[in-house]
Structures are given as C-alpha cells and as structure tokens.
Amino acid sequence: MNAVFRPSAADLADFVYREAHLLDTRQFEAWYGLFAEDGRYWLPMAPDQGDWRGRQSIVIEDKLMLRIRVERLNNPKVYSQQPAVRCQHVLQAPAVEAADPAANAYRTRTPFFYAEFRHDEQLTLTGVVKHLLRVEAGALVIVEKRIDLLNAAGALPGIFLMP
Q: What predicted TM-score, i.e. pTM, was given to this entire model?
C-alpha cells in the first residue's frame, strides 16, 4: 500500500530553508530540480500585483528561462561570474498561509533579508517570498516562487543571483 505524502508545516518550512541553502551554496542544478515543469519564478513590481499576465514585472521566468539562467551561472566563462557572485539568505520562520491536501496546494510566506556580494560591492534586499508548492512523486515542488521586494517600485541595481 502506498502512503500519500501530506506535508506538515515542518515539512513546508524545511523545504523553504533547503531551497535557500541550495542557492547560498551555488547548487543551482539541485535548485532548478525543485521546480515543477510548469513552475515559475516571479518578482512583481508591486506588492498588490495579483497576476503576472498583462502587467510589467521585474522578473518572470518559466522553467525554460530558469534552465538558461542555471546554465549561465554554471558556465565558468561567463564574465559576470568572475569572480563568482556569492549570496546569503536570512529567513524568518516560514508561515503556512494555506494547506489544501485535496487540491494538492500549499502556500508559505517567509520574510527575508538577502545579501549578494560581487567585486567588492554588496547588495542587500529585503522582502517576502511566497512559495506555492505541490506534491509530485512523493516530494514537494515549486509551482510558483514569488518574491515581493520591499523596494520593488524603486530603482534596482542588477541582481545576479536569486533572492
């Protein structure tokens, strides 16, 4: 008999922490593997932006665009990665906003600080990351990672990695 995986609040929090750790340790292939085939990575321009369709966003990437990003980050000849950009996520405890096992939908909300270091310059961002997750083949996957930056409506410098 196959048991159905129904993630607990602790499982959801562990997933969010693990995802940030993969980015901080430059394990981009493993990070990419966390996304569902229809998954997307989204930085809206406004915290009240309800949808990415028909409105401008800072970043909206589907799995194909994420693949291109990961290949660029892993390529030793890419100038923007000489030396390699380093980052650090500092997360508050993820809160479960919604858990609907019948719909296979789980939503978390995590306030964060993010720092990125490149060429003697440090960029610091803060905001809230929202994960929409589901279970596939007994594991959690990202359907949508939405990052609401505190200063999203302001002028932003280049962000090389992923808050």
A: 0.91
